[in-house]
């Protein structure tokens, strides 16, 4: 009797014709025999579905549905419902499995019953360079400040049966929330020293246009974690959140967006978070390292005036150009209030 787990690879698509063939072929080339590949299409208007149908006629493991959806997590949830796999893997249409033995290498040994998440490594392809990402250090508290790329993760179907599907109220970070839920509901994580996928670093979660939305969703996740943890865990979580707070503040300094809304929703969540925030906010070296001319003037024009003035102060200390920053600060405040 065969006890090898069945794997479902799920790929949401919308107008993905330019990259989809490489994705499909990377799955089709797997030496592991027990898998299916679901294409969940959102009524593409290019020739995505022509490609899918052509390859589905060649590969019996390739299945598809094309119908209106409400976003990527709605498509991923459809894939969960349609899939027959013991393990699920979500592969972007512009990503591909790294080699033809990825699934065989992962499942060559039996996986313990208490394992709910398998985590490996990925190669990230940015516009001008590639970067290897290793996911070796994580625990329940990890997700208060960081996340694991979903292309590096396979999840047991049992996780979704216990924790529910992806939260569709999130547009970018529902996979991070699900990663935490797996821990919260008692599933174990297993790290495998295998490169699972080659991942495109140009997707929506990497788009600078969505920085503010991503940041707000990360805050929601941190709030959710604090709501579902014990009092003894909150200090550890606050320490882990420092990395996120530092990134968020540096983005506020650079882009001039979202200071007060994030401060109110994040820092007022817990007294330990407030302490973590203060340790960063009142650190002179942080301001000296992260203040920029463009960020300061953007904040003065349309962001937080307080943040903008603090940046100007530290830029004057660092660059010794007092009259330059005074003149331009007055200019951008006039733009803000009189135009």
Could you please describe the fold and organization of this structure?
The chain is of the alpha/beta class and 339 residues long. The protein has 2 domains: 7-206, Spore Coat Polysaccharide Biosynthesis Protein SpsA, Chain A (Alpha-Beta Complex); 210-338, no CATH class. Helices cover 50% and strands 17% of the residues. The protein has helices at residues 17-28, 48-58, 72-82, 102-107, 157-163, 174-184, 211-228, 231-255, 259-267, 271-281, 284-290, 293-302, 305-319, 322-338; strands at 7-13, 35-41, 62-66, 87-90, 96-97, 115-125, 130-133, 153-156, 188-200. Strands 1, 2, 3, 4, 5, 6, 7, 8 and 9 form a 9-stranded mixed beta sheet that branches. The radius of gyration is 23 Å and the shape is globular.
Short summary:
The protein is of the alpha/beta class.
Radius of gyration: 23 Å
CATH homologous superfamily annotation of the largest domain? Spore Coat Polysaccharide Biosynthesis Protein SpsA, Chain A
Helical percent range? 40-55%
Any idea what the CATH architecture of the largest domain is? Alpha-Beta Complex
- Give the percentage of residues in beta strands: 15-25%
Gap between N and C termini:
76 Å
- CATH third-level topology of the largest domain: Spore Coat Polysaccharide Biosynthesis Protein SpsA, Chain A
